[in-house]
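Methods — Computational structure assignment.
A single polypeptide chain was analysed. Its primary sequence is given first, followed by the predicted tertiary structure written as structure tokens.
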Amino acid sequence: MTMKGGQAKTTLAINLAARIAKARRDVLLIDSDIQANVTTTFQRDHHCNLANVILGKVSDFEFIQLDRHLAFLPSGGEAMVEASSYLNYTRFKDSLFK
């Protein structure tokens, strides 16, 4: 998988999630992209987003239920940079003390 933009990764993820949900299978779509294109597509900006979950800024959260079988966790947008740094620091710290 490439990190390059314009490769239809977001479109593919949204369409696969929708198709699986239409088949009555439960799907959780998580937007982890700093550009937050999935979040923009669903026009959802919510305080309970992936960045805030990673950073521990929300203790009790619920996914946004788009329909009966499709739930969604929005990206934190630019806050994903801080969340990524936190995860990398935590992994580094854990590796030092093994």
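Note: The helical segments are 9-22, 37-41, 50-54, 79-96.
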